[in-house]
Design brief:
The protein is an alpha+beta fold and 696 residues long. The chain has 13 helices and 35 strands. The strands form ten sheets. Strands 1, 2, 3, 4 and 5 form a five-stranded antiparallel β-sheet that branches. A five-stranded mixed β-sheet has the order 9-8-7-6-10, with helices on one face. Helix 7 crosses helix 8, helix 8 packs across helix 9 and helix 11 packs antiparallel against helix 12.
């Protein structure tokens, strides 16, 4: 399943229909970086690679290069170079074939013939939902060969079928279903059923191009499953219904929630579960229809097949909106025009589910998989991993399994009114679909550590990865952790293990200017889980341009910007200073502020301070204030006009904040008795004005 059915066919390099042109202004710089590291990369030259995927994001820009032989891609090879927002290379990884044999790269059979041979070998019949055949230089077997790699998904047989054949003589070298099923954890009820009919092959019809007519709708769904919302154990009226699954009970139906659907397709009065992010499809048997209707309210009880359809649609659409619109992380399928296709009833009825090439298919055995939000989010997690990496998803150490579990747990943990930290089920994965007679489920409170706790079983090992990231989630919260997690995955490749993924996630957080305290939490949690985290080189991130207004004389007193600059190193012990120093008076104009972080060594960054002329007497009066007595020994009084909701910060001459306070009235008294004698700056945060006083 559920547990994961993920087709690596489309997660490996060279199998994708990319959404954007693969060009980058940084290609030359990236190639120069590669050229300077040829010895480490163990390739002959940067001319043996081709730029295949570019991703611009909130953490920078990632370029992915594929190894080539005579313009033919070498299967499953890659060099990843990531630039941070300052245009510096901040992360790199590679999966390179070291000993490439120069072979004949001219095929002797056609692609069409390769597809014919493949179809016969795997018994393709009925509707084909996906098929492609590509040439690769392939060294996964005994000898390096030129091969056709044909991958096919079709309605009559679940999974994604890969056929590797010699492109010179047509010899079949490998045939396998490259979907990853639930493996050793499954019971005897979990199997990959097939039902080939022998019908003539034909391709899924293409819909006519038209302007989509979306409008809001509603649906009844589980959030995230009926047991979690009711906080009860599986059994009795809270069970699937022994021998007659999907039985309605008053208790289960009471756990449904009415939710809004931002977009539902309305074509000539026919409403369909289709949005700009997600669309229902029949991809595999059984074919139960697309549940179109004459209104936009999909209000099913759980015994209706339409309930699973509406439930899966809501959760996938909601998750993708959260990622793209709330987090600001661009993440869409690389196929299907950027729309996720899902089938709520596939797998030929078996108890399994899978992701493959921009599609999700949910099985129906035992508890229907599309009834459990954890299953839906877990499988979607594989898709996110796939799309973010341009098809370079990794299952090393169960990385993608753990990523799917994290994504599901992050969603369900954020829901209110469900399990509490005192409940064992708080950490469970698949509360409704598993931890019962169906199968054992998993947890994000797994005790094993990396790498000694690895057992070479991807679903079990993935729990180490999901557990540690949920521990970070518990401290940093959902938004920060999700954003760093996704942007970090986007730096990985098809050979990345959990160790390097941890480094990538932390680096993404650094690139996005997370506070040093946040970075330290990540380092500590990853280290405690057994990952070896390298020391962080000292860096400092400056704020953007600061625009302020001069006083009536055309002057502005520079405040301390230490709180706006972010110094990051392993111990978070850097001292931040600035030039010009706080207290310097500057005229109208643009001034370069240099912030310096020092901890053994020093690094700096710059930003512009734009001082604008005062707009007039009214604006000067509005921001006029006085501080008295000055000098002062125990207290100072700040008096001025329109100070409601004003916030002040007091800095010493080292740029260290010593006092922070909100001014509630137009006259406030501040206790300075604990300050050392010296000169201080009061900085008015909203007015962006400052004033000196002396403590004596």
């Amino acid at each position: 399943m559920k547990k994961t059915l993920l087709a690596l066919a489309f997660c490996l390099i060279g199998t994708l229909q990319l959404l954007v042109a693969q060009v980058s202004e940084k290609e030359a710089v990236a190639r120069q970086w590669i050229k300077s590291n040829l010895k480490e990369l163990k390739i002959n030259s940067d001319s043996d690679i081709s730029l295949r995927f570019v991703r611009k994001s909130i953490s920078g820009e990632t370029l992915r290069f594929q190894q080539m032989v005579n313009d033919i891609p070498v299967f499953d090879t890659e060099i990843v170079v990531h630039f941070d927002l300052n245009g510096q290379v901040s992360y790199a990884d590679h999966n390179i074939t070291k000993d490439i044999v120069q072979i004949n790269t001219t095929p002797q059979i056609s692609k069409e013939r390769a597809i014919e041979i493949s179809d016969k070998e795997i018994g393709v019949s009925g509707m084909v939902t996906f098929q492609e055949s590509k040439l690769f230089v392939y060294n996964k077997l005994d000898n390096t060969k030129l091969v056709y790699r044909t991958v096919t998904s079709f309605e009559e047989k679940s999974g994604a079928w890969e056929v590797i054949m010699d492109a010179i003589d047509g010899t079949i070298l490998s045939v396998k279903d490259i979907a990853i099923y639930c493996g050793a954890e499954c019971t005897s009820n979990h199997h990959n059923a097939t039902n080939t009919s022998g019908a003539a092959k034909y391709f899924m019809p293409k819909e006519a191009t038209s302007t989509l007519a979306f409008q809001p709708g509603t649906a009844m769904v589980f959030l995230s499953d009926p047991l979690s919302s009711a906080r009860v154990a599986y059994g009795g009226n809270y069970s699937d219904g022994a021998g007659a699954g999907d039985v309605d009970t008053a208790e289960l139906n009471a756990q449904r929630v009415l939710v809004n659907l931002p977009e539902i397709d309305n074509t000539a009065g026919t409403y369909k579960l289709k949005s700009s992010y997600v669309e229902i499809k029949n991809l595999e048997n059984p074919n139960k229809g697309l549940f179109t209707q004459a209104n936009a309210n999909f209000l099913f009880t759980r015994n209706a097949d339409g309930f699973e359809a509406a439930n899966a649609f809501y959760h996938t659409d909601n998750s993708l909106r959260y990622i793209n619109e709330t987090l600001g992380v661009t993440c869409r399928p690389l196929t299907n025009g950027g729309v996720l296709w899902f089938d709520p009833s596939g797998e030929n009825g078996a108890d399994n589910s899978h992701y493959v090439s921009g599609t999700l298919v949910f099985g129906e055995g035992c508890v229907d998989d599309a009834e459990d939000g954890d299953v839906i989010w877990h499988e979607l997690g594989h898709g996110l991993h796939d799309w973010l990496t341009g098809g370079s998803l990794s299952q090393v150490n169960g990385l993608s399994e753990g990523s799917g579990d994290y994504w599901a747990q992050s969603h369900s943990r954020a829901l209110s009114g469900q399990w509490t930290s005192a409940d064992a089920a708080y950490h469970w994965m698949f509360n409704w679909d598993g931890h019962n007679v169906c199968w054992g489920g998993r947890t994000t409170n797994y005790g094993a550590l990396y790498p000694g706790g690895l057992v070479n079983q991807i679903h079990t090992d993935g729990q180490i990865w999901s557990t540690v990231n949920m521990k970070i989630w518990d401290v940093l919260g959902r938004t920060k952790t999700d954003k760093a997690f996704l942007e970090g995955l986007a730096l990985t490749n098809s050979s990345t293990n959990q160790q390097n993924a941890a480094i990538a996630v932390r680096q993404a957080a650094i690139n996005m200017n997370y506070s040093c305290a946040d970075i330290k939490v990540m380092t500590e949690k990853y280290t405690a889980a057994g990952y070896v985290m390298p020391a962080i080189a000292l860096r400092i991130n400056c704020p953007g341009t600061q625009t302020v207004t001069a006083d009536g004389l055309g002057n502005y007193t520079v405040p301390s910007f230490a709180s706006l600059a972010n110094a990051i190193n392993s111990n978070c012990d850097a001292v931040v200073t600035q030039s010009p120093a706080a207290g310097t008076v500057v005229p109208v104009g643009t001034h370069v502020i240099t912030m310096t972080a020092t901890s053994g060594t020093s690094v700096n960054c710059n930003f512009n301070l734009v001082v604008q002329a005062s707009l007039g007497v009214e604006d000067v009066v509005k921001n006029t204030f006085s501080i008295y007595p000055n000098p002062a020994s125990t207290t100072i009084t700040i008096k001025g006009d329109n100070f409601e909701n004003e916030e002040i910060e007091v800095y010493n001459m080292l740029g260290q904040k010593v006092i922070g306070k909100n001014l509630i009235t137009n006259e406030s008294t501040i206790d300075i008795s604990n300050l050392a004698n010296g000169v201080y700056i009061v900085y008015f945060m909203n007015s962006k004005a400052s004033h000196k006083f002396v403590k004596q």
